[in-house]
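Entry 12.
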Amino acid sequence: MAGHAHNLRAQSGAGRPFGTITRGTTGFNRLRRSDRWTYYHPELSSYLRSADKPLAVDVGYGASYTTTVEWAGWLRRLNPGVEVVGLEIDPARVLPPRDGVRFELGGFELAGYRPHFVRAFNVLRQYAEDQVDMVWEEVCSRLAPGGYFVEGTCDEIGRRAAWVLLDETGPLTLTLAWDPHDVEKPSDVAERLPKKLIHLNRPGEKIYDIFSAADDAWDRAAGWEPYGPRVRWRAAREILLAEGVPLHPVRRRIRDNTLTVDWQHVAP
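Predicted 3D structure (tokens):
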């Protein structure tokens, strides 16, 4: 966890992007779990399908174009007319256009755009904790009507991920997603919580209670282990639901194990 607490502070000023330069590490297919989740999310996917020439902005894409171009591919399956822009605060990382994606200088001010969808992954994890609300408010205030913002974190090759979905009113949900074969128990994903929550996984906090309940259900579903971790997690989810944990439904069987709850159930 110590590696997440770099405590950078956003800088802003006239004519300057809003934010600060981060490490910029990235890699092919790193954000695949979020991409799949976006594609199958009923409200978000419906919104993008119905929008006329929607604009999607990827904030802080890092030292490579890869995850932004992959994201564009998923979004264009929803709406072939989507325009995708990658923003980087480091001028040295601004790339020539490729694969129908533009790359520009910018930060959380969104370079003056009013996009329908914004994504920022592995950016705020390097900021100071007290910067999160300010950044969320800045981005959400610049969304197009009905727009969405996904802010999250994942490990270096995308096996464990967590993200918050926001709209103009603020945070809506928290989602945890992981490779079923990569974790021994759901709380292993806690190390990849978004900055807003990562320091709060302790007794007395709601996010701690969610992980404790998930681990307990996972243990009680051990009889399903011979059928594999995906089947075992489905059984654990049923235990959680039967005990009143308000999980969002999984509308199709996917390769990831996922857990989504309303923000009010994990908010500090």
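Annotation: The domain at 2-198+249-265 is CATH 3.40.50 (Rossmann fold). Residues 1-14 have pLDDT under 50 and may be disordered.
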